[in-house]
Amino acid sequence: MTKQIDHISKKKFIEELERYRKGSITRRHFMNITGLGAATAVLGATMSGPQAFAAGDIGDRVVLATWPNYHDESNFEAFTEATGAHVQVNVFGSNEEMLAKLQAGGSGWDVYVPTNYTITTYVDEGLIEPLDTAKLPNYDASAFDARYAEAGSVGGKLYAVPKNWGSTGMAINTAHNGGKAISSWKEFFDISRDSFSGRSMVHDYQLTTIGSALNYYGYSFNSVDESELADAEKLLIDVKPHLFAITSDYQPSMRNGDAWLTICWSGDGKQLNTDIPEIHYVLGSEGGEIWSDYYAIPKSAPHKEAAYALINFLLDPNVNAKEVLAHGYPTADSNTYKLLPDSIKNDPILFPAKELLSPLEFGAAVTMTDPNRAELMARFKSA
Amino acid sequence: MKSKAYDSESQSVDRNVIAELRDVSKSFGDVLAASDLNLSIGEGEFLSFLGPSGCGKTTVLRILAGFEVPTKGEVLLDGEVVNGLDAYNRPVNMVFQQYALFPHMTVTQNIGYGLRQRRPRLSKTQIVKKVTKALDVVQLGGFENRRIWEMSGGQQQRVALARAIINEPKLLLLDEPMAALDRKLRKEMQIELQNLQRQLGITFVLVTHDQEEALSMSDRICIMREGHIVQVGSPQELYDRPKSRYVADFVGTSNFFSGKITNLTENLVSVLLENGMSMQGILGGELTVGQDVCISIRPEQMRLHRQGDGLTVKVLNRIFLGEHTEYLVTHGTLGDFLVLSPRQSELNDVPFNRGDEGLVSWDSSIALILENN
Amino acid sequence: MTQQARNWLLLAPAGTLFLVMLIIPLTVVLIFSFGERAPSGGVVPAFTFEQYANLPARWTAFKNTMTLAPVGTLSALIIAYPLAYFLAVKVDSKWKTILLVMVIVPFWTSILIRSYAWIFLLGGRGIPMVLDWIGIEGVRLINTPFAVLMGIIYGYLPLMVFPIFVSLDRLDKQLLEASSDLGAKPWRTFLQVTLPLSIPGIATGCMLVFILLMGEYLIPALLGGGKVFFVGNALVDLFLQSRNWAYGSAVAVALIVVMLITITFYMRLIGRLGTSRDDVSIM
């Protein structure tokens, strides 16, 4: 009799664990195939994590608001060991949601991860304060590619330091398109209404969904022009009956074959492509989003010292390299880049060719606060 | 179909048989609730099933109603086997112990319920007419639109009665209908029920554990014990000529003296009692020499006096009951037993008091020798 | 302590909760609904009916809610009633408790996790694949209104089963025998006795499910693929995405008003139907 007591063998489990650690599969996929999903979901809800054994100067914990699958857990453990502060993680799905939570007050966050275009709004709203670089010795401004770091400064003051960057394109399962990928938003929306009807997805996120529809007409991804938005709305409402879903959690449907095409962030694209090679990640030739995420500290942060300590820890190139290996998103920090293996440095999904990146735009602050874009998205969803 | 309804000994008039049980048994799992029952019920008769709880009398009623299907045997209604006939297809109605009136309907709606189920439909006016008449019969005129919970227990029982008789059933089954009423009301209802039965001519089948109720109302009583019919007969028959100690004990009160038959002659039979005394009596059933028996003597058939022949006893207790006085006496060999003395003899003689000595005597021809079980 | 003082003391915890958790938030929502959206989200105080004038923009969400809530309630009722009837009337009493517990057990797991199970079941590798094997091809279940209805019926079934079970369990079984005895066939006994006497349970169950369905947003979001849009989803979007608190408050007030009107109408209807004495257990 074999010792295979679970539904996958020990060897396979270890392999999957390694792939998970390398970031080639998502946490959800890992849990699905190993059967750990339900168990950890329940445990995760009830366990408060290790209690600090020795509360140091910075206190016994730090609360981090971030995105799903965006960190290496072992780095947090190392941080706890070094400082005695336990890292409590809250996960969010959109910048709008993060802003809503901070605006409502009482978030309890010490560190959070806003995207480039939202930072001015936080500054205007008085929700964040300038960073004291003296408390961030690992922050080497000169090491960062300015393109991915400049949004952190507003009015000459540094409010946020870069975390990772990426692009928003599309993922297509080429098996259903005669083995061919597509290369434009025009094709995306056209085949969605034709051969891919009922098989494509857009984000439940105004910036990328409206942005892509604007790109279809050759307009700017960030447009708030009323007639251009009207065109985008017409397109989206026309496409809606053909959509499989409006969701930002698109990996499961792409993986199980229910959906064949989706608006996609580069890291997810990388993960999908690694596991299912016929799923290709491509950028739209008309344009699309390039983005950069940052670490920032809310004014209301209850554990400010711990917040600085955590950011400083994560900026350490050795720690940061482990982060990149875990989640697969590139970093703008040249010191960290140097530590990465060539396979990642040469990856065409993570580091696309310059000419492919050039039409992409950073999100504009106005898109987040523009009431017309918000209402357009709502009309589209309720149509 | 015209046939003789009962055994000769029941002494009842001949009636048409309306219902019949033939070798009927019913078991629930391992429990035998009714065993090999044979009984004919005559048209227009008032029959009671009497027995302690758990004797199977309610099971018989439910078999007649169609709620239970017999495990074995046949049930006949009006000459036809109805074993497989559902309750809703039987011309039989029941008055439930807790009345089972529909709480969401008025008095009128409850009473008219059975009529409304008829197919082809009865007209509204027909139903109203019949309901009014039924209300009249149970003296509930004016309560038409009352809600059930606005009625007293006695009134509810009348509604239940009206709801059943309005359908003019072949059998009216009554499951301990008086159990929920207080004593005074119960007496009144007993008389009313009897009048109603005579007036309507419907066959009544009553289940009760109250011997007084059964004795006062029934044409015949069927005594049950542990799923068996022990004896069937008119109230007088059961009282005067019980076939077993069980019946004698259940119907009325009696003094029992256990022993064995020593000698069987034509008239009087001698019994050697366990205490060594010998006593004589008449046979109450088919018995043989050497059989374990008991002698049953009703207290009112014994006389307590001061002169003449008799057993010498000592009075232990005296209870004045109005038309009778009940004495608990004790005898050196026979032990304690009861004697009832009519008021008249008390007035003629000097009454006995506790501690007095007296003589007890009886006529051997009323001492019944019965199976001792 | 006087009787009156004691009564007040008994009411104090619930009363405080009611004030803090219901009256105050409702007042705040009402005040917000007359305000305006702040430039970067939130609300600025004002007195304008602009938000209410804009309500037709969420007409579809209201229409969907007012369709799916009654349809969902009715579907749950149609499925729950036979189940409750079976549990209360047909099942041997020794199995009753076990079967009842089995009805509740799914409630021990969060609706989120259970909905993910449905995502798999209704997805391409679930039921449609099985149908495919037996020759029924091209069936789409996930991300359709049908999937949302399934999820709703599944999620709310126990809430419907329990009140009906209780009313049927309390039903005096002798009444059913009495009806049969008086000549009613089983089906007519059900219509004339069982059903009318279980109306209080039906009314309570429908009320519970209906009210909760009016505010439902999780199941349509998960099983409807974001394409089946309820007022609940509109509210989540308005408060968590576009941060238009003023308009969100107006939509919330409108939902409450619609709910109150529906419930008032419903109570009248039930009042006319349910006539049995103390059994009218709802309000």
Which short descriptors sum up this protein?
heterotrimer; A: 383 residues; alpha/beta; D-Maltodextrin-Binding Protein, domain 2; 2 domains; seven-stranded mixed β-sheet; three-stranded parallel β-sheet; 18 helices; 12 strands; 42% helix; B: 373 residues; alpha+beta; Rossmann fold; OB fold (Dihydrolipoamide Acetyltransferase, E2P); six-stranded mixed β-sheet; five-stranded mixed β-barrel; 10 helices; 35% strand; elongated; disordered N terminus
For the secondary structure, the number of strands of chain B is: 20
Q: Largest interface, by Cβ-Cβ below 8 angstroms: which chains and how many residues each?
A: A-C, 38 and 33 residues
Shape annotation of chain A = globular
Assign the CATH superfamily of the largest domain in chain B.
P-loop containing nucleotide triphosphate hydrolases
Which blocks of ≥5 consecutive residues of chain A have pLDDT under 50?
1-8, 20-55
* First-to-last CA distance of chain B: 38 Å
- Helical content of chain A stands at 40-55%
What are the SSEs and their pairings?
The complex is a heterotrimer of chains A (383), B (373) and C (283).
Chain A: H1 10-22, H2 27-34, H3 37-46, E1 61-66, H4 73-83, E2 86-91, H5 95-104, E3 111-112, H6 119-124, E4 153-154, E5 157-158, E6 160-173, H7 185-192, E7 200-202, H8 206-216, H9 226-239, E8 243-246, H10 251-256, E9 261-265, H11 266-275, E10 279-282, E11 288-296, H12 304-315, H13 317-327, H14 334-339, H15 342-345, H16 354-357, E12 360-361, H17 365-369, H18 371-382
Parallel strand pairs in A: 1-2, 1-3, 7-8, 7-9, 11-12
Antiparallel strand pairs in A: 4-5, 6-9, 6-10, 6-11
Chain B: E1 17-28, E2 31-42, E3 46-50, H1 57-65, E4 72-77, E5 80-81, E6 92-95, H2 107-111, H3 113-116, H4 124-137, H5 153-165, E7 171-175, H6 183-200, E8 203-208, H7 211-217, E9 220-225, E10 228-233, H8 235-240, H9 245-250, E11 255-264, E12 269-273, E13 278-283, E14 292-297, E15 303-305, E16 311-320, E17 324-331, E18 335-342, H10 343-348, E19 357-361, E20 368-371
Chain C: H1 3-33, E1 36-37, E2 43-44, H2 50-53, H3 59-90, H4 93-104, H5 111-122, H6 127-133, H7 145-170, H8 173-181, H9 186-197, H10 199-214, H11 218-223, H12 231-241, H13 245-273
Antiparallel strand pairs in C: 1-2
Helix pairs in contact in C: 1-13, 3-7, 3-10, 3-12, 7-10, 8-9, 10-13, 12-13
